[in-house]
């Protein structure tokens, strides 16, 4: 179920096996009453621009079973990629000689001729429909004589939204029924105005938007944005595709058969669809993503796959967890694995210990498996059905036990003895002394040679095996830091082969977890460096890059961080095309994330922690363009701690001004930007690569905050907690004096009067 190509998840509506799908007789523009499509004639109705068509298609997995639907029809899209965007009746199929017609009563009907029944209808026979039209946006509409739309396919979605299409509170997207699992996935809007992905009617595994009493609807825009809008179409919540506002000819939003909601864009260069956003970043977090076929794990390339470590049979069609034991059971332990029931989705939870969790399931005749959360909650989650699934990964703490059939030989010791009983016992033997001596000598020689060979092998391989074993264990230990040798650092980075930044390299741990390795240019004392690394490793915040390990030997001072997919803010600002992806909203979110991270370091830890080297190069962006600050805390190991708080705030002010103006050389634009602001033209200081509009109130707050942060009089610099409150709009800020005029010589220090903070 997790198998998909590089860019596009395969759907039963994507591939059209029969070349007859692309139909020969075409009806353009207005569709009059009585118009008919049939499986025999292979005709279709096409939009005026030719981008969309509606007609029959033969399902790839069901020969001679047809459905009717709307698909892309543009000549720029190859036949194999002309995916379905709407299907009449969703999963309804008909046989040969069937037809789809706009009847004389103004009703769309799908007729199965072999059965002689109408299997689907638009129910518009009383709506005075006079014609139909497939619009250029892919919307099939029924019109009355005044041209008013009385029914449209956009109001009756299947698994896809097209640009301009909305999803109201009473509508649902449902994944295609490719198998017994996928049809249980749906996207709907709850009573609080939130989008939710759910399994059946009980399990919600993703929520988008904030609770609201407003009457909201979801809209997918042509610019690649999924929004929740109110009654006056004001956006309340938005998510952006990574190519947001880029020139893209075709887009779609679809609930795929693997239960994930994805945004796709058509790439003319590669002639393929590319996923530019997905709701659930980790596919293994989609409920029942593996169905009855095992647990979700990540392979060596970082892609999710379904594995079945519990199956005792070679039959590929058998369920992963099903067992029909004729003897005793045993409990098999699986580390770093979380299991949950899917039929029904309701675990029985007991508060107990790890060993008791295992014993309780073993003694319970209906228990099939148990998971101990191992996260401090002491939860034992019992399963009483063979229909369960789960996920596994080295960073997970849960421990699971699966009840499996015991070894038949161990369970039934009589089986072994019965065969030997068939041989008649012999009470007397004739001994051959020379034979015994020869056999013993030969056995000794063979044994000695094997021992020698084994000893040599162990001696030559022991260090490497232990090293890799220790590294893999450390990589999977979410509660500690890896302490790596320089040789291990060279191994995981491929001898520093893949450089991703200044003295920063990409590496891969033995458990296939990607990491970023920073080679520090420093001669910090070993004791201080280890203490600092240990302290940094204990700091966790959503806007801070997590430290996974370090190397401190042979004069090497190296840090191993979690790997963040996108590049640094600096790279985005230097690249003309990449910078356009940093919209005003994204830039606001970035500097707010950085501000919260630095504020947490200053006030949220048990003791003050400085960054010491905050700059755009050290702010990286994840897949969703959320900012994460790296290389923090190294200032604590330096003897000079004067102005460390003020330096962090000043450096943050430079990042603010960089994100607003687009210029990395803040010293060159600070005076100009202040002049534009003080003269009442703050918008002139904004990076001209931002073309999606700006919020002038946010811009005013941002510039004022930046100029306060850049004051060289330390007594005038605000704290990071004040900065966060101002940027969030919960604290007002006074107009700042020119930051460049407060620069002074050391001799003037005592003559200056204290300033006030915002």
UniProtKB/TrEMBL annotation:
<keyword id="KW-0418">Kinase</keyword>
<feature type="domain" description="Protein kinase">
    <location>
        <begin position="468"/>
        <end position="758"/>
    </location>
</feature>
<comment type="similarity">
    <text>Belongs to the protein kinase superfamily. Ser/Thr protein kinase family.</text>
</comment>
<keyword id="KW-0723">Serine/threonine-protein kinase</keyword>
<keyword id="KW-1133">Transmembrane helix</keyword>
<feature type="domain" description="Apple">
    <location>
        <begin position="325"/>
        <end position="405"/>
    </location>
</feature>
<dbReference type="InterPro" id="IPR011009">
    <property type="entry name" value="Kinase-like_dom_sf"/>
</dbReference>
<dbReference type="InterPro" id="IPR003609">
    <property type="entry name" value="Pan_app"/>
</dbReference>
<feature type="transmembrane region" description="Helical">
    <location>
        <begin position="436"/>
        <end position="459"/>
    </location>
</feature>
<dbReference type="InterPro" id="IPR000719">
    <property type="entry name" value="Prot_kinase_dom"/>
</dbReference>
<keyword id="KW-0808">Transferase</keyword>
<feature type="domain" description="Bulb-type lectin">
    <location>
        <begin position="158"/>
        <end position="276"/>
    </location>
</feature>
<keyword id="KW-0067">ATP-binding</keyword>
<dbReference type="InterPro" id="IPR000858">
    <property type="entry name" value="S_locus_glycoprot_dom"/>
</dbReference>
<dbReference type="Pfam" id="PF07714">
    <property type="entry name" value="PK_Tyr_Ser-Thr"/>
</dbReference>
<feature type="region of interest" description="Disordered">
    <location>
        <begin position="734"/>
        <end position="758"/>
    </location>
</feature>
<keyword id="KW-1015">Disulfide bond</keyword>
<dbReference type="InterPro" id="IPR001480">
    <property type="entry name" value="Bulb-type_lectin_dom"/>
</dbReference>
<dbReference type="InterPro" id="IPR036426">
    <property type="entry name" value="Bulb-type_lectin_dom_sf"/>
</dbReference>
<dbReference type="Pfam" id="PF00954">
    <property type="entry name" value="S_locus_glycop"/>
</dbReference>
<dbReference type="InterPro" id="IPR024171">
    <property type="entry name" value="SRK-like_kinase"/>
</dbReference>
<dbReference type="InterPro" id="IPR001245">
    <property type="entry name" value="Ser-Thr/Tyr_kinase_cat_dom"/>
</dbReference>
<keyword id="KW-0325">Glycoprotein</keyword>
<protein>
    <recommendedName>
        <fullName>Receptor-like serine/threonine-protein kinase</fullName>
        <ecNumber>2.7.11.1</ecNumber>
    </recommendedName>
</protein>
<feature type="domain" description="Bulb-type lectin">
    <location>
        <begin position="30"/>
        <end position="155"/>
    </location>
</feature>
<keyword id="KW-0732">Signal</keyword>
<keyword id="KW-0472">Membrane</keyword>
<dbReference type="Pfam" id="PF00024">
    <property type="entry name" value="PAN_1"/>
</dbReference>
<keyword id="KW-0812">Transmembrane</keyword>
<keyword id="KW-0547">Nucleotide-binding</keyword>
<dbReference type="Pfam" id="PF01453">
    <property type="entry name" value="B_lectin"/>
</dbReference>
């Amino acid at each position: 179920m997790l198998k998909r190509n590089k860019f596009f998840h395969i759907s039963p509506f994507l591939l059209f096996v029969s070349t007859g799908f692309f139909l020969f007789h075409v009806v353009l523009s207005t569709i009059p009453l009585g118009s008919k499509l049939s499986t025999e004639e292979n005709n279709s109705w096409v939009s005026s621009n030719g981008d969309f068509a509606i007609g029959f298609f033969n399902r790839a997995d069901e020969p001679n079973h047809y459905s009717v639907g709307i698909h892309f029809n543009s000549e720029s899209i190859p036949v194999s990629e002309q995916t379905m965007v709407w299907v009449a009746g969703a999963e309804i199929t008909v046989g040969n000689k069937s037809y789809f017609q706009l009847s004389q009563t103004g009703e769309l009907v799908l007729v199965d001729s072999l059965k002689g029944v109408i299997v689907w209808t638009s129910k518009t026979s009383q709506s005075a429909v006079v014609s139909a039209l497939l619009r250029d946006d892919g919307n099939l509409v029924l019109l009355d004589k005044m041209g008013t739309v009385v029914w449209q396919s956009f109001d009756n979605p299947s698994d896809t939204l097209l640009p301009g299409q909305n999803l109201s509170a009473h509508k649902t997207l449902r994944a295609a029924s490719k198998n017994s699992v996928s049809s249980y996935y749906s996207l709907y809007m709850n009573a609080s105005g939130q989008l939710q992905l759910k399994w059946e009617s009980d399990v919600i595994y993703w929520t988008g938007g904030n609770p609201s009493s407003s009457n909201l609807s979801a809209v997918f825009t042509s610019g690649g944005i999924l929004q929740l809008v109110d009654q006056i179409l004001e956006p309340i919540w938005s998510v952006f595709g990574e190519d947001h506002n880029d020139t893209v000819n075709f887009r779609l939003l679809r609930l795929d058969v693997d239960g994930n909601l994805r945004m796709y864009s058509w790439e003319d260069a590669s002639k393929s669809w590319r996923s530019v956003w997905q709701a659930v970043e980790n596919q293994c977090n989609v409920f029942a993503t593996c169905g009855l076929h095992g647990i979700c794990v990540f392979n060596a390339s970082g892609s999710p796959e379904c594995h079945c470590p519990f199956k005792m049979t070679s039959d590929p069609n058998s369920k992963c967890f099903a067992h029909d034991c004729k003897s005793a059971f045993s409990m098999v332990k699986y580390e770093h694995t979380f299991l949950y029931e899917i039929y029904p989705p309701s675990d029985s939870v007991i508060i107990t210990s790890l060993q008791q969790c295992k014993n309780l399931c073993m003694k319970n005749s209906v228990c099939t498996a148990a998971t101990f959360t191992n996260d401090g909650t002491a939860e034992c989650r019992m399963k009483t059905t063979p229909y369960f699934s789960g996920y596994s990964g080295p960073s997970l703490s849960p421990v699971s036990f699966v009840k499996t059939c015991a070894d038949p030989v161990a369970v039934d010791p009589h089986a072994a003895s019965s065969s030997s009983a068939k041989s008649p016992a012999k009470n007397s033997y004739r001994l051959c002394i020379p034979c015994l001596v020869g056999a013993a000598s030969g056995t000794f020689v063979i044994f000695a040679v094997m021992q020698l060979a084994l000893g040599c092998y162990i001696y030559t391989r022991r260090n490497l095996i232990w090293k890799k074993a220790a590294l893999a264990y450390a990589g999977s230990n979410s509660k500690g830091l890896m302490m790596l040798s320089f040789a291990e650092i060279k191994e995981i980075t491929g001898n520093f082969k893949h450089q991703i930044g200044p003295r920063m390299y990409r590496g891969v741990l033995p458990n296939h977890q990607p990491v970023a390795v920073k080679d520090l240019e420093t001669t910090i004392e070993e004791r201080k460096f280890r203490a600092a690394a240990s302290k940094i490793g204990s700091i966790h915040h959503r806007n801070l890059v997590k430290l996974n390990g370090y190397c401190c030997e042979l004069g090497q001072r190296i840090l191993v961080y979690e790997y963040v997919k996108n590049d640094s803010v600096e790279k985005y600002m230097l690249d003309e095309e990449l910078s356009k992806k940093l919209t005003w909203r994204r830039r606001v979110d970035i500097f707010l994330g950085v501000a919260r991270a630095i504020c947490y370091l200053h006030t949220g830890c048990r003791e003050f922690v400085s960054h010491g080297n905050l700059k755009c190069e050290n702010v990286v962006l994840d897949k969703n363009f959320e900012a994460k600050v790296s290389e923090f805390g190294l200032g604590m190991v330096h003897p000079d701690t004067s102005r460390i708080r003020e330096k962090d705030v000043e450096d943050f002010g430079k990042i603010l001004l960089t994100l607003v103006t687009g210029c990395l050389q803040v010293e060159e634009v600070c005076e100009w930007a202040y002049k534009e602001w003080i003269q009442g033209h703050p918008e002139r200081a904004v990076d001209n690569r931002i073309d999606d509009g700006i919020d002038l109130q946010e811009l005013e707050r941002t510039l004022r905050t930046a100029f306060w942060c850049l004051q060289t009089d330390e007594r005038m610099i605000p704290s990071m907690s004040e900065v966060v409150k101002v940027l969030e709009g919960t604290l007002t800020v006074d107009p700042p004096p020119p930051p460049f005029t407060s620069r002074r010589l050391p001799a003037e220090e005592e003559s200056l009067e204290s300033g006030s903070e915002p």
